[in-house]
């Protein structure tokens, strides 16, 4: 059977892939005969390749710095996959994708024209952030030059430029926090590091960043909490003690995480870790804050 589906990148990836694979099969069954050169296996999602619609659109979003694309962008992407049809037919395919829930229509604000305009987005915001994060890391990140990669003048480095950049892209930063440990595994110099160490120092204690950090831990693979000795990374321990436990709101979010992972015996934040944390308090202090939390 499937165990711990909602824990770690494996869970995130499986949910994402299953959705696109299911939708692709449904659309092929209904529309392959009308658009045989486009609507076929792997045209929406291809795990092992880059020439599929979702990855092409994610690339466009990443390069533009937006979480949306225009209808023209989608038509260009469809043409990239197959140039056998007219723009009118590509528009029909776009409507099929919207009807099936693969893409959605939305509106974005044009600050210069002071008006809204139509845009296209992925159906699930969190999933789209992970697809974009993976593209950015694939294209711009070198695990042997981690700091340099995250400070370069490109679509990845620009996210970490300053406080404004970090906070305005916080959902994408959260996705990168999940993906980052997987990318640095083979670099022994970074075994104690986490993405939080590469953010501008003045952003690390902001509510947006600590909340993103905690949320990212729900999706992280258990082994990605650990260094080569099987201990929780120093970076995570330091951030928890020096930032998260200093504030009431972040402490409460952290306890939510601990309670959520307590039922998973192989997780670094298992019930044993929570018990070890609580046992350090006097009975009076523990009962006071723990009873209030519960």
Brief overview:
With 294 residues, the chain is mainly alpha-helical.
Describe the structure.
By secondary structure, the protein is mostly helical. The protein has helices at 9-31, 53-64, 71-81, 87-99, 125-140, 146-151, 163-168, 170-183, 207-219, 234-242, 248-261, 271-279, 283-293; strands spanning 103-110, 115-122. Helices cover 53% and strands 5% of the residues. It has a two-stranded antiparallel ribbon. β1 and β2 form a beta hairpin. The longest helix is centred in the N-terminal third of the chain and has 23 residues, at 9-31. It is elongated, with a radius of gyration of 22 Å.
Keywords:
294 residues, mainly alpha, 13 helices, elongated
Euclidean distance between termini CA atoms: 32 Å
Question: In percent, how helical is the residue content?
Answer: 40-55%
The main pleated sheet reads as: 2 strands, antiparallel
Write down the overall mean pLDDT: 90
Number of strands: 2
Relative strand content: 5-15%
- Poorly predicted parts: none
> What's the shape?
elongated
Specify the number of helices: 13
H/E topology pattern: HHHHEEHHHHHHHHH
With strands numbered from the N-terminus, the spatial order across the biggest sheet is 1-2
Gyration radius from CA atoms, angstroms: 22 Å
Structural class: mainly alpha
């Amino acid at each position: 059977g499937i165990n711990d589906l909602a824990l770690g990148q494996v869970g995130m990836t499986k949910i994402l892939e299953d959705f696109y694979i299911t939708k692709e099969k449904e659309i092929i069954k209904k529309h392959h005969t009308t658009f045989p050169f486009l609507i076929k296996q792997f045209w929406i999602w291809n795990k092992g390749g880059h020439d599929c619609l979702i990855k092409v659109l994610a690339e466009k979003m990443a390069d533009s710095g937006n979480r949306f694309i225009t209808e023209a962008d989608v038509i260009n992407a469809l043409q990239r996959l197959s140039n056998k049809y007219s723009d009118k037919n590509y528009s029909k395919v776009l409507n099929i994708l919207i009807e099936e829930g693969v893409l959605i229509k939305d509106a974005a604000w044009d600050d210069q024209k002071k008006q809204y305009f139509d845009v296209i987005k992925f159906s699930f915001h969190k999933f789209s952030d992970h697809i974009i994060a993976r593209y950015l890391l694939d294209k711009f990140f070198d695990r042997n030059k981690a700091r340099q990669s995250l400070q370069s003048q490109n679509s990845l480095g620009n996210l970490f430029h300053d406080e404004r950049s970090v906070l305005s892209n916080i959902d994408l930063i959260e996705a990168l926090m999940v993906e980052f440990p997987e990318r640095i595994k083979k670099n022994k110099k970074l075994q104690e590091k986490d993405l939080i160490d590469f953010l501008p120092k003045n952003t690390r204690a902001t509510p947006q960043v600590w909340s993103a950090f905690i949320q990212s831990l729900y999706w992280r693979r258990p082994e990605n909490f650990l260094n080569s000795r099987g201990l929780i990374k120093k970076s995570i321990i330091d951030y928890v003690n020096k930032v998260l436990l200093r504030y009431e709101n972040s402490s409460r979010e952290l306890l939510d995480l601990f309670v959520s992972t307590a039922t998973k015996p192989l997780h670094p934040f298992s019930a044993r870790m929570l018990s070890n944390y609580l046992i350090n308090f006097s009975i009076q202090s523990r009962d006071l804050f723990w009873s209030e939390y519960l």
